[in-house]
Amino acid sequence: MAATKDRVRIVESTVLSDNWYTLKKVTFDFLRRDGRWQRQSRETYDRGNGATILLHCRRTGNVVLTRQFRMPVFVNGHDGMLIEAAAGLLDNATPEERIRLEAEEETGYRVSNIRKVFEAYMSPGSVTEKLYFYLGDYDASMRVSDGGGIEDEGEDLEVLEMPLRTALRLVKSGEIVDGKTIMLLQHLALSEITEERQAGSRNGF
Predict the structure, then answer these.
(1) DSSP assignment of 15-27, as one string?
(2) Taking CA 74 as the corner, what is the angle to CA 93 and CA 51, rounded to the nearest 5 degrees?
(3) How does pLDDT run across 108-145, given as a tens digit for each residue?
(4) What gap in Å lies between CA 101 and CA 104, rounded to an integer?
(5) To the nearest whole number, what is the mean pLDDT of the chain?
(6) Based on CB atoms within 10 Å of each CB, which residue in 3, 31, 79, 201 is the most buried?
């Protein structure tokens, strides 16, 4: 089978809207696996790439999340107030630079020890955005402000601190429904299970 770039022929790309970010309609020919070319049309929404971080206190087992209003989920039947991990668009910064700034702006914690865990496309059927996922260590000494986001950008975030097990229960109950947040919480939980098993093996359990 040919390389993907040789299976796609862009016929036309039309900007439908650039009022906030860029929405395009792309018409293209795609070489199917059976050797036939098929004309298709898709809309792509380009808002740039982003980064997200889950803050975790190793001593207490707590995590820091935020709660904020999201219009798209509001118009889809949710009450609009989503519990989320801190996140933001890169805006020409590196993922690590951006997520340090976002963590401080949104949660009030100035974190130093952060680690990238993976990258993911969150809605590849229509949105071009790729997210960079991080975990970060925090404790009370790192609190430099109340957080809450930037008012001039319409942000009004409530900062939440809770045990990881509580956050996982909120996922199960449907109170946490944000995809990136669920992914980070589950990754952290699996990492802790792995660390416990490894420690048990070293200790002969």
Answers:
(1) EEE-SSSEEEEEE
(2) 15
(3) 999 989 999 999 999 999 999 999 999 999 999 999 99
(4) 5
(5) 93
(6) 31
CA 85/CA 176 separation, integer angstroms: 10
Whether residue 99 contacts residue 86, with contact meaning beta carbons closer than 8 Å, is answered with yes
> Which pair of tokens denotes residue 205?
């359990």
As given in the structure block, the two tokens for residue 23 are 């929405």
pTM, rounded to two decimals: 0.91
| Measured distance CA(146)–CA(158) in Å, rounded | 9
In whole angstroms, what is the distance from residue 62 CA to residue 167 CA?
9
Phi-psi category of 54—alpha, beta or left, where left has phi over 0 and alpha has psi -120 to 50?
beta
Tokens matching residue 140: 């009370």
Helix, strand, coil fractions of the chain, as percent rounded to 5: 30, 40, 30
C-alpha span between 10 and 29 (Å, rounded): 7
Which structure tokens are listed for 200? 């048990």
Which helix (H) or strand (E) covers residue 8, if one does? strand 8-17
CA 33, 35, 40, 45 dihedral sign is: positive
User: What pLDDT digit, counting tens, does each position of 150-184 carry?
Assistant: 888 778 899 999 999 999 999 999 999 999 999 99
Residue in the structure block whose two tokens are 């990754």: 187
pLDDT at site 21? 94
Q: 198: pLDDT confidence band, cut at 50, 70 and 90?
A: low
